[in-house]
Amino acid sequence: MKEVHHEAEEHHGAHKKTYKYGMVVDLDKCTGCGACMVACMAENNLPFRKDNSDRVRSQLWMRVYKISNGRPFPDTDISYIPRPCQHCEGSGHHHTPCVSVCPATATDYSHETGIVSQVYTRCFGCRYCMAACPYHVRVFNWWDPTWPKGMEKYLNPDVSVRMRGVVEKCSFCYHRYQRAKNKAYAEGRRELHEDEYQTACTQACPAGAITFGDLNNPEHKVHKLKKSRYAFRLLEKLGTNPKVYYVSTRDWVRKAGKAYAGEEAKGVTHVTHA
Amino acid sequence: MDSASAPFDSALFPEGTKRCQFKWFLFWVAVLHGPLMIGVIAALMCWGLALNVTYLNNNYPFGLWIAADLGIIALGAGAFFTGFLRYIVNIEELKNIVNYAVVIGVICYATAQGILGVDIGQPLRGWFIFWHANVHSMLTEVAFCITCYFMVLCIEYFPLILENRQINRLGFFHGMAHHLHEAMPTIAAIGVFLSFFHQGSLGGVPGVLYGRPFAFREGFLVWPWTFFLFVLSAIACGPCFTILITWITEKCAGKRLVKRNVIDILAKISGRLLVVYLILKTLDTVYWVAIAGKVGAPFSSFYANQPYGYWVLITELGIFGVIPALILLSAKARQIENVLIIACILNCAGIFMNRWIMTVQSLAVPVMSFDKFVSYHPNWVEYASTFMFVWAGAIVIMLSYRYLPIFPQEKELNPL
Q1: A250 in contact with B at a CB cutoff of 8 Å?
Q2: Is residue B94 part of a domain?
Q3: Number of other residues whose CB lies within 10 A of the CB of residue B112
Q4: Alpha-helix residue ranges (DSSP H) falling in B132-259
Q5: Domain range for B68
Q6: Does residue B4 form part of some domain?
């Protein structure tokens, strides 16, 4: 394999390369079709109910918001914001918001990949992490997971199903990282190619709006895309330091994404998308 | 007492005291079992059918249970603070109410742990918090301190059981009760240490949430300012709750159980602490308003969604803060029983409101600009399972009052 040179960070002074997996979503390309949500649900064994319209209780790791500039015709404009877990790194004296508060160490920040994990078998359902997350990416299992008869045969064997009473969230399809890594190791490699590890939502997006890769690696597309002058992250001022970047050439979209709820984004209305 | 009309269990009553007939006692215990059983059904529903039976949702992972938990622990602060005043500051008169403060404390802390057991929905996994403890989490500190302090409270309550008239006749138990009393200053000091940390850590629970500008506070070292405000507010309202429950007990028993000067000491201390708390809370609020803008969060956005308008701030600090503080500071006002009780009710309500604001309102305020405000109110399952512990606590008080010598002044105030 070609030697990959990138801005690898040294982890605890050891000779172990660290990665910073992240995502760049081009909001100008996103059509709001919801394919990413469906792919995510299928890939990660997310349960659903007959009537799944109660959005504040449904299990969605990837959720697409529809926002509007709130202006009358003909100036009306809309944008869709796909929102997976932001895999915050934290900054300054702040750790990842959810990781630092979990009392049972059921969620952890991987310094190897930059991915925020969730240990379902350790979570006891206090939901403190959900309170800590300003992006609402964490969902609680209000029910025991069920699937229509026969559908359980189609569950992904690489992803454990979660029982009621535990919190779950997007893992950047971590099982795919493990699978790719196993394959690379079997082939005597230590580095993954960019296309070897891709999330389900990235691959499902028909518009190619989602790009995934190592933010530290100059050879990965995300490294360049995140440096776009139109790139921004949600609620940047809070200092959560997310690894999901968004790109939009529209000023009002960038403003709405970066801003805190209130006057700064006045006029931005939203509709929760299915 | 006329032995012919004395209740059949009168031999168990504290020496020189009178209690109602056993049938009436049983009747009221049975009455309390009604709502208690509804609460048990609600709790079983939560465990058996999962938490979808509540009105909690992904936007409101914290609801009535957590707010009640934080509130009840603050109210239970009367136990450790009265113990501190009695055994460490050595205010002699408080020996006449410290026993009851301990009983109330045991109930409050048992309630808090019971509510948490329902709230997590997975009580069988509760031990994970100790086994896989994350030392950076405020909730870990809370869990450890509350559990340890509950044990301390049980140790403080235990000698009261041993002092039951019949148990105390046995030499071994008499001796054990005596030795435990001897050790009480040390036990009280341990209680003060543990309580300081868990009351504070409960304040830290919302205070460290830097992703929620409404709740987040800067602070001293690892402790946000809410850490100190929660300690102060707890010791400012805990004694008022002790006064309030004592008053209710007196009304139910139909007699005075504690002398007014004892109540007055607690009320006076509570009032002064409440003033200090209000000053610091006001400073904290002013500073919070100033720094909220740093993250682009306009102060007005915190109160833009009904029912969480500006009235919340005014009610918490004004009606439930300044008014009880003024009453409790005035010696004349404190002497008027009804006025004193109103002040205690307002003070305790203020604590509950503060805990609700710091937990539930913190989650209610949208953070992302395209976030939608979602309203939440608890449903009957949440109410019933919360109040279940209140009814159980009332039964514990009834049993303790009937059989244990918790009011040293009762005999003097109510000669037979």
Answers
A1: no
A2: yes
A3: 26
A4: 138-162, 171-182, 184-207, 225-253
A5: 13-363+377-413
A6: no
